[in-house]
Design brief:
By secondary structure, the chain is mainly alpha-helical. The protein has a single domain, classed as Hypothetical protein af1432, CATH 1.10.3210. Helix content is about 60%, strand content about 0%. The chain has ten helices and no strands. It has helices spanning about 5-15, 25-40, 45-50, 75-80, 90-105, 110-115, 115-125, 130-140, 145-155, 170-175. α2 (about 25-40) packs antiparallel against α3 (about 45-50), α2 (about 25-40) crosses α9 (about 145-155) and α3 crosses α10. The longest helix is centred in the middle third of the chain and has 20 residues, at about 90-105.
């Protein structure tokens, strides 16, 4: 299966499900990809932003699984899946975007207070605030800065009715970043 077909299949499977923020999984992905493109990110970071939540579309758990107190570890599932198609410049920021939320909630004054109810619930399930040791370990990750930037676009891409480019628009980036 080619890369774009695999991406489309994942979004076809669960892309219309709720993201928990008033937008669908697909709308959230498109908004995040658009934010990265708008801000002049590299093609790899645009793809990572677009596909950062792909792990939510790969499992068969119910849409409201977080409400049941279960973390799907979507960042690990998504990163592993993406590594079949892309290098670490795409898969690693995806793996780190949850840790980036934990890091920012711990380190940046006011960040925690801006998180939505759904983000606060997932933060709790994902380990909550970081310890000083966890923060230092995160800062040593080779792609930690990209993980933080992806997180910022993740936080921004939750706007109901925002008209952004469709999935086909991002195919050029996906194709340019895929493994040969």
């Amino acid at each position: 299966m080619n890369t774009m077909r695999a991406v489309r299949a994942a979004f076809d499977k669960r892309g219309q499900q709720s993201y928990g923020e008033g937008v669908s999984q697909l709308d959230h992905a498109l908004q995040c990809g658009y934010c990265a493109e708008r801000d002049g990110a590299t093609p790899a970071l645009i793809v990572a932003s677009l596909l950062h939540d792909i792990g939510h579309m790969l499992h068969d758990l119910p849409e409201d699984i977080a409400d049941k107190g279960i973390d799907t570890v979507h960042e690990s599932l998504g990163s592993a899946w993406l590594s079949q198609y892309f290098g670490p410049e795409v898969s690693e920021p995806v793996r780190l975007h949850v840790a980036a939320k934990r890091y920012l909630a711990t380190k940046e004054k006011g960040y925690y207070d801006l998180l939505s109810e759904a983000s606060l619930l997932s933060l709790k399930l994902q380990g909550g605030l970081m310890s000083p040791e966890e923060m230092k370990a995160f800062e040593r990750e080779p792609y930690f800065r990209e993980g933080i930037q992806l997180r910022r676009w993740d936080d921004e891409g939750k706007i109901e009715g925002w008209d952004v480019p469709d999935l086909g628009h991002f195919e050029q980036y996906i194709e340019s970043c895929r493994n040969p």
